[in-house]
Design brief:
single chain, 3 helices
Length: 67
């Protein structure tokens, strides 16, 4: 398989149809650390969400977990 084919396949198989970003491993690690920090204590602020906001938020969290 050609390198470009792998990238295209990864983009096509991304969570929820979101294309994969062209990021280095170091950039991805930095983002993982940032997301981990942002999610710390999220259960303590869920009460701030309106019902209609929570469904999409939980779907995004599920996509993140699957990733």
């Amino acid at each position: 398989m050609h390198q470009g084919d792998r990238r295209q396949g990864a983009a096509a198989s991304g969570s929820g149809g979101v294309p994969a970003l062209e990021l280095s491993l170091a950039q991805r690690r930095e983002l993982v650390r940032a997301v981990t920090a942002a999610l710390a204590g999220v259960e303590g602020v869920l009460h701030q969400g309106v019902g209609a906001e929570l469904g999409p938020f939980f779907a995004e969290l599920d996509a993140l977990r699957r990733g």
